[in-house]
Design brief:
This protein is an alpha/beta fold. The chain has 6 helices and 15 strands. A hairpin with a 4-residue loop joins strand 14 and strand 15.
Length: 261
Amino acid sequence: MGTAGPAATLWPMPASNLLTRVVREIRRDIKAARERDPAARGVGAVEMLATWPGIQALLAHRVAHVLHEAGVPVLPRAIAYGARTVTGIEIHPAAQIGERLFIDHGTGVVIGETAEIGDDVTLYQGVTLGGTGFQIGKRHPTIEGYVTIGSGAKLLGPITIGHGAKIGANSVVVADVPANATVVGVPGHPVRVDGRRVEGPDADWIHLPDPVADAMRALSARVAELERQLSELTGRPVDDKREAATVHPLRPVQGRNPAGG
């Protein structure tokens, strides 16, 4: 006698169990949206379900993922396709998403088949968790808990984004990111954050580190030191009238944290 397949062992799932699981998860998603989206304050759950694309996409994915795990054919992809058409957010039914994910605005967000997202993650519009080739198996990113990913960021391949990391807007990340690091640039460069900041979504995109300016500043200091040593060896004074090298960041940091910090 043959062994039953996944559809026979997991499906049909009792409708009450499916409904309970989805309702529990979507309540947490709505709570996360209220906590992280200032526009959601004072808005009822029904209105958010009806008008928040990120919540709608997550609701559809929660259902599609359960059906996908149960081995149900066609329907999970059909649900994902419908959600993409309505919300502009594409989430593969097989993607593993933890609790309290918040997708702000959401248009253009793509989450691939083998992507894994931990708890309390925040994604902004245009984020891609994609692959880099046609290999079989794990080919999409793993996002650990409390990560914030800025608008337009592209995270490609089977990389791991460490707990509490922050990915700057429009960064292209193709390598692992340490926990509690900030990444900026193309390709993305991780910059360690001194100390451990309070966990939670961080939307301050103004006060990001500038690794290019930091490198140029270090180079300028090194040249000044070499000039001083050369002056001591040759007995020739350094030209004091020559303007000292000053590094000006391409993006001056001014103003307070727009995230309210």
